[in-house]
Amino acid sequence: MDVQDLSAQELAALLHFYADAGVDYLLEEEAVDSIAEFEVQKAQRQSGRKDVRETTRAQRQVPSAPAMRPSAPLPVPDDEAVAAARAAAAAAEDLAGLYEAVAGFEACNLKNSARNPVFPKTAADTGILILGPMPSSDDDREGSAFAGRYGELLERMLAAINIGMQDVTLAHCIPWRPPGDRPPTQAEMEICRPFAERLIMLSQARIIMLMGNISVRFFLGNGATVHSVRGTWQNLSVNGQDIPALPMLHPQDLILAPASKRLAWSDLLSFEAALKR
Fold first, then answer.
1. Domain parsing of the chain, residue ranges
2. Which of 76, 116, 200, 241 could be disulfide-bonded to 81 (CB atoms 3.0-4.6 Å)?
3. Segment 108-152, tens digit of pLDDT
4. Is 78-276 in CATH node 3.30.565.10?
5. What pTM does this model have?
6. Which residues make Cβ contacts (< 8 Å) with residue 82, sequence separation at least 6?
């Protein structure tokens, strides 16, 4: 099937499939036999014929790539994108409005490869906010934070200290899944920061659980890591308000290293004690 025969919906689905598979670059429509090409190059060196490579390429009859039509907005300079994010976030009067601002925001390149913005439309009335780093493939597909097995493990963790998933607001610092699950760049984090800070204010968060290394870097700076600060209460200053936050290991960290569950249990007990106070 030729790319010109695909509808816009089919092309978008194909690009999402490539992104989920970790494909970052599209090169040629047909595979190149590098071994055969090497043999041709060796024969060229031996015979001195300079046209062998061109002849071989012609024999492969690789069709020329179709002209690429722009399918995404042109990139916006970082400073302008941050300013646009601040204006869009400040204009939102509630979480539903902030969700619409995120969904309609075009100045972050992460949106171009993501299926859905992962952002809460409402908040729990407990003031408990759990912030993860960025959406997983399950989150991206479902359009909600902590979906799939990470959400299942988080639910069991919270249940151990008598908190239900309906009692917390779930969100990510980065509302769009980066392609191939790569870490977001510093520029991308700065563009997303106004939305995360406005989320904290509109959700009326009074206590925050920061999960994962990227969340820690997002709020505490590049020098901080989740392993160096986990279990240590931090004050997040947002719009002049100090909100207590506890860095913790992400459910993904616990799945990859089950021995770390004892650290997570200690942190959960600290979080429970803070809620009681």
1. 30-69, 78-276
2. 76
3. 999 999 999 999 999 999 999 999 999 999 999 999 999 999 999
4. no
5. 0.72
6. 190, 191, 193, 194
